[in-house]
Write a structure and sequence with these properties.
With 212 residues, the chain is of the alpha+beta class. The protein has 3 helices and 8 strands, in the order H-E-E-H-H-E-E-E-E-E-E. The chain has a 5-stranded antiparallel sheet with strand order 1-2-3-4-7. The longest helix has 46 residues, at 3-48. The protein starts with a helix and ends in a 5-residue tail after the last strand.
Length: 212
């Protein structure tokens, strides 16, 4: 080929290369935008699944806050009013971050809410949940969970803990960890979780928490 044709071919090749690169970048940015929009929707759905109103009765005051480290996460909390006037308080933390953890957290929440009105003790609810997580998730997935039931008259806390952070009970100016509990959910389907009861007095504060 003459030098003029070679130069023309090189110019066309460079222009084609720039065009192809721009097209790939546009496709990549478009896919990223779609993913961000889907994650934003998932975040709103997860936030809307959290309780909007928490108990504020003459004997019980409940407050909560959750801030995910990503668009969505595996931490969740819930408070369900039972038919007999008691309240079921749940807090769970799924191993991992992002969408996979959020999906398992949604399953845990749905299972707890489904069982809430059965009237079963919290340790039985936790046992069922443990078997469900074990059957529905791979071996490297597990979750920690604290379930507590608060009575309104003669306040008493009945709780069961599956590997979650030890709750802190502040009473009469002193604090202590409630250390009773078992292993996280999804590891051993045969484990039995203890049912622990703690008498509460006026002015007592119970703190349940997770890391970020």
């Amino acid at each position: 080929y003459p030098a003029e044709e070679v130069s023309l071919l090189q110019t066309l090749a460079n222009q084609c290369g720039v065009g192809v690169k721009n097209a790939l970048l546009y496709q990549e940015n478009l896919a990223k935008t779609v993913l961000e929009e889907e994650l934003s929707v998932a975040r709103r759905i997860q936030q809307q699944s959290l309780p909007t109103r928490l108990p504020q009765t003459p004997r019980i005051h409940v407050a909560a806050m959750g801030v995910p480290s990503k668009y969505v996460g595996g931490d969740y909390y819930d408070c369900v009013e039972l038919t007999d006037g008691r309240y079921l308080i749940a807090i769970a933390d799924v191993a991992g971050k992002g969408v996979p953890a959020a999906l398992l957290a949604s399953m845990v929440q749905a299972s707890i809410r489904t069982q809430a009105q059965d009237g079963k003790p919290v340790h039985e609810v936790l046992g069922r949940l443990n078997r469900l997580v074990h059957e529905a998730t791979p071996e490297d997935r597990f979750a920690t969970c604290f379930l507590g039931c608060l009575g309104c008259e003669g306040p008493e806390l009945s709780f069961s803990n599956a590997g979650d952070n030890y709750p802190i009970l502040a009473s009469n100016g002193a604090t202590r960890f409630l250390t009773e509990g078992g292993i996280p959910l999804g590891i051993d389907p045969t484990v039995c979780y203890p049912d622990v009861r703690v008498a509460l007095k006026r002015g007592d504060t119970l703190v349940v928490y997770h890391d970020v």
